[in-house]
Amino acid sequence: MAGIRRFFLISLILIASGGVVAGYWSYQLAQQELHLTGAPELLEIKRGDHAKSILNDLAQRGWLTQAVTPSYFASRVWARPEGLQAGVYQVRDGQSLFELWQQLRQGDQYQFSIALIEGQTLAQWLTAIGAHPYLAGTEELRSGGELVTKVTGSDQLNSLEGYLAPDTYHFYAGTAALKLLRTAYTAQQQRLLDAWQQRADDLPYATPYELLIMASIIEKETGLGSERDLVSSVFVNRLNTGMRLQSDPTTIYGIDNFDGNLTRAHLRETTAYNTYRIDGLPPTPIAMPSQASLIAAAQPATSPYFYFVADGSGGHVFSETLTEHNRAVNRYQRGKH
Fold first, then answer.
1. Given 18, 117, 167, 293, which is the most exposed site by the fewest CB atoms within 10 A?
2. How far apart are CA 283 and CA 267, in angstroms?
3. What is the pTM of this model?
């Protein structure tokens, strides 16, 4: 009898030891590290994906080094891979399988971003937005006049040019492109309202829209923040004295398929945007103006200047008279001293 009892005792110890070993092994499988070949990568989880299919995907990518089936059962025991949310996630080298399941349960998705740059046109923005692979509904960007209504909720505008706020926008995969545009529109409306309410006295602008047009011209004329209010003052001085704006960027905006070479023929042609030929402002903004340009349009410097010319280093030389301006043009544009 003593021998039989001893046999059963040893057997129980071995069974218990085996269970401990198996439990430890399965825990290690659930905690195994994912092996990427360098920088973090994106993992898309689609609706209907489950733990087993996700593990198969990880194995095919080479991120999972242990067998799929035992990894699946270990995950079920230790990590609760359930209630996983669809989306696009960033996975990093060395991240544990346990952490991945937690990330997918919490819906901690990767946040994308797109920079919509000041001084660019609506057409350029729509091209950039339409090319982003993780924005949804980009086909609606081609809806022409309907796009204005979809974004603004109104049919009072002819174009979104100038009406969208330059910024870096963040979003999750599957976000509607229209939602991004609506956010940019709302932000620009507030910026324009703030600038209009803080505008200087006696500006030659009857409406906020005219201020927006001027801000877009300032945006295209200079990239230096320190110059914006001076550029603004030049155009205010011209408008106040009945002088034409004579702005190259407005003229270029009105040229179809512009090749980068502004010619005398272009300047002689009468278009709605050729401010060498028309009086006052062009009919619409010519680009998306930054908040800084809106403020410059609303609060121009007080200056005697009517002219400016690029100095070749990113800035401009400002002049009071045409004679001074011509000397500056000869020096900085034609190389004559």
1. 18
2. 17
3. 0.85
